[in-house]
Amino acid sequence: MPVLKRPDGVIHYQVHGDGFPVLLFAPGGLRSRMEMWPAPAGGPPRPWVDWIKALPEAGFTVVALDQRNAGASRTAIEADHGWHTYAADHMALMDHLGFDRFHVLGGCIGGSFCLKAVETAPTRVTSAVLQNPIGLHPEHPDYFPNSHAEWSKEQRAARPQLNEAALAAFGRNMWDHEFVFCVDREFVRNCPVPTLLLPGTDIPHPAATSAELAALLPGVEVLTDWRGPDYLEEQHDQVVAFLKGHTPLG
Q1: Could you point out which of 55, 77, 121, 191 has its C-alpha 20 to 30 Å from the C-alpha of 129?
Q2: Exposed (0-12), middle (13-18) or buried (19+): which is 35, by Cβ within 10 Å?
Q3: Which domains does the chain have, with CATH numbers?
Q4: 197 vs 29: CA distance, rounded Å
Q5: From residue 60, how far is each of 27, 30, 63, 116, 166 by CA, in Å?
Q6: In this structure, how many other beta carbons lie within 10 angstroms of the beta carbon of residue 241?
Q7: Which residues, at least 6 apart from 135, have a Cβ–Cβ distance to it below 8 Å?
C-alpha cells in the first residue's frame, strides 16, 4: 500500500481508476479507514455503495485513505490537532498525487471532512457528496465526547507513550463545537461548491443535522431514500450523475 510521509507520521492510501479524481473519506468516526467501504467477508451487506469499486467503474479516479491513527496510518496526536490537521493531510495527499482539483465524497465523519476540505481549499474542491453526515444530536450531546474517550483508551493501549492531556485536548478541538463540528452554519450557508446530501437518521448521524444542512446549503440536491439493498442502484446512479454533472470540462 502506498504511503504518504507527513511531518509527524505516515498516511496509507490507495488510488484506483483513471479519470477526474474523487477524494474519498470512509465512515467510521476517528476509525475511518478504507476497509469500511466494502462489506466484510461473511458479514452483512453495507447499506451504502462501495465507492472504491464503483467510482473507477464509472470513469473516475478514486483516492482513498486510512485517516491518521486509523487502519494502517500512524501519526502523532498533539494538543493543537483538530479538523485542520486532517484537512492538511488531505491537501498534502492530493498535492503528492498531482491533483489540483477534485471532488470529495464522505460517509459519516467523512461528511465533516468534506466540508472542512471545502473551507480549506474552495478553489480546489469542485463538488461534495455528504453521505450520512455526523452532527451534534440535540438529545445526545455527549455521544461524540464519550466516543472520543473510548477511542483514546484504544490509542493509549496500543501506544502507552501517548500523552493523555494531548488526547483530551485533541478531543475538545474536534467535538466542542455545534452542528457538524468542523465548520459553522455561516460557512454552510455560503458553501461555494455544489453539494449532494444523503441524510442521516440516527444518533451519530442525526436527522436534525441533515435537515439543517438541507435548509442551509445553497442549491443542495437531496437523495432522501438511499440506504439499504432496495436503494443501492438509485444511490449509485444519483451520486455518479451528480459527480459527472459537476466534473470540469477539459
Answers
A1: 77
A2: middle
A3: 3-245 (3.40.50.1820)
A4: 18
A5: 20, 26, 10, 22, 39
A6: 13
A7: 179, 180, 181, 200, 205, 206, 208, 209, 210, 212
d(CA 157, CA 154): 5
**What is the spatial distance between Cα 94 and Cα 11, in angstroms, rounded to a whole number?**
12
Which strand (E) or helix (H) includes residue 197?
strand 195-198
pLDDT in tens, 2-12: 999 999 999 99
Instruction: Look at the chain and count its residues.
Output: 250
Residues linked to residue 16 through DSSP beta bridges, in sequence order: 62
Q: Is residue 38's pLDDT more than 80?
A: yes
The DSSP string of 102-154 is EEEEEETHHHHHHHHHHHH-TTTEEEEEEES-----TT-TTHHHHHHHHHHHH
